[in-house]
Write a structure and sequence with these properties.
74% helix; 472 residues; single chain; 20 helices
């Protein structure tokens, strides 16, 4: 149906315009993100806890978490380039998130069982856990990048905000399920404790459920979404399909050299946003255990520590839950005050939310901190991408989405290298002070959004000039 619509929808000079998609079509093509984010939510809420169960000290956690951004740094531009320049019976993006889903499901099953696998393989449990974590991270990146590019592929640019907002809603639902799953299982009698050196059953069974849901949602998107053919993409770009050639792998380096200016400015904002998020994901379990439960940093096996881990999972579920209604508000709010103003406001709320965790002593009120973080998370997942697709050419959608990921993973790598030593040396392994540092970074991201990003009504002509200046 989309193909037929495209043939009859023409713009100036007879150029074929990309047709609008219905809400059902947008949901179908983004459904796999629900499963991906459940896996991501399980990892964010439990990876530090699992590694601590296996013997990692708090100041070492950020080093183990380096696996995620390093794999993203390598994988996403490559997958984006391959998706831009290949075609299969399944399409251009769908083969990659199918492969990624299968590998991620295997990682979900194996990571919490690393201790059992160690006994069979006579390997170091932390080393094996990091290998399984790397497998999960690499495959999540393989699956995630094509979903971002798919929105740019399938939707006209004026539907970009709603497309990424729908993804944000589905991401929120998946993350809520993943974050709350261990606590739900504990509530029905599944144990949340385990012998020293092993992972509790509620976490293990949660990872099993995540693997199943991931595969089901990815398959749903594959069977319900038909991608445009290379010929149709050429027609949308007003090009002769016979003269369109695939670019070489080495062209990735040329694409780096021609990053649009607006993309660089968005990257600066992303740096501070994702530095803050990485801080939260890595150190919240330890911060809550020491600051709110009164534990020593060395306590990583007691029931109280595992209760703190369960609470962290619930808090992460809460900010994702709050992100869902905020995602519905992003499109009307962006129309009313502008995209950059919306994003700056959201980051300000997120920064204040992180800082407030230091001052709230009663764990029963920590959910209030998650409101601002939910607003920030909803915007981080949608608004930068909605602004990004306005400045990148259609036939480079995948590779530029992958390159844009550099601005996400580099701050995480820097934080991963230095975060642990900072917590150890300056804060005595009490991580809540570093959570406050993360909040300040998110507020700096809000300031940079207002200072560096151009207003919506200033960009169209300059955007067109930037696109024309990109050499292929």
């Amino acid at each position: 149906m989309a193909e037929m619509a495209a043939k009859h929808d023409t713009g100036k000079f007879g150029r074929i315009k990309k047709p609008n998609l219905s809400m059902a079509q947008i949901i179908n093509m983004s459904m796999g993100f629900l499963g991906i984010q459940m896996a991501f939510g399980l990892q964010n809420g439990n990876a530090s806890r699992i590694l601590a169960n296996f013997g990692a000290d708090v100041h070492e956690l950020s080093w183990f978490w380096l696996v995620a951004p390093v794999t993203g740094l390598i994988v996403q531009p490559i997958i984006g380039h391959l998706g831009d320049n290949t075609w299969s019976p399944l399409g251009r993006r769908k083969p990659y998130f199918l492969i990624g889903a299968v590998l991620c499901a295997i990682g979900l099953v194996m990571l919490p069982n690393a201790a059992s696998a160690t006994q069979m393989m006579a390997a170091n449990v932390l080393l094996l856990a990091v290998i399984f974590l790397a497998m999960m991270d690499a495959s999540i990146n393989v699956a995630m990048e094509p979903f971002r590019a798919l929105v740019g592929d399938m939707l006209p640019k004026h539907q970009g905000t709603i497309g990424f907002s729908v993804q944000t809603i589905l991401i929120g639902i998946g993350a809520v399920i993943g974050s709350y799953m261990p606590d739900w299982l504990t509530g029905i009698g599944v144990s949340n404790t385990a012998p020293e050196g092993f992972v509790a059953d509620n976490v293990i069974y949660s990872f099993y459920a995540g693997a199943v849901l991931l595969l089901l949602t990815i398959l749903y998107t594959i069977f319900t979404t038909k991608e445009y053919s290379p010929k149709q993409f050429a027609e949308f770009a007003n090009e002769d399909p016979e003269t369109v050639h695939s670019s070489k792998f080495s062209d990735i380096f040329k694409d780096f050299a021609h990053i649009p200016a607006q993309m660089k400015k968005l990257g600066a904002v992303q740096f501070f946003s994702w530095f803050a998020l990485f801080t939260m994901w890595v150190f919240t379990t330890s911060a809550v255990a020491t600051h709110h439960f009164g534990l020593l940093p060395e306590d990583t096996h007691s029931k109280a520590f595992n209760d703190a881990g369960d609470l962290t999972g619930k808090l992460f579920g809460m900010y994702n839950l709050w992100a869902i209604p905020f995602a519905f508000l992003l499109t009307p709010l962006a129309k009313a005050i502008g995209k950059k103003q919306t994003h700056a406001l959201a980051l300000l709320c997120g920064g204040l939310g992180l800082i407030s965790m230091y001052f709230i002593k009663d764990t029963g009120f920590l959910w209030t901190s998650m409101i601002g973080l939910g607003f920030a998370w909803a915007s981080i997942l949608a608004m930068p991408y909605a602004m990004l697709i306005e400045v990148i050419p259609q036939k480079k959608m995948g590779v530029y989405m992958g390159i844009f990921n550099f601005f996400i993973v580099i701050p995480q790598i820097i934080n991963g290298i230095f975060g642990g030593p900072i917590v150890n040396r300056f804060f005595g392994n009490y991580a809540m002070d570093y959570i406050v540092v993360g909040g300040i970074c998110m507020i700096l991201g809000a300031v940079m959004t207002m200072v560096f990003i151009k207003s919506d009504d200033e960009t169209p002509q300059e955007i067109e000039e930037e696109i024309q200046q990109v050499h292929f």
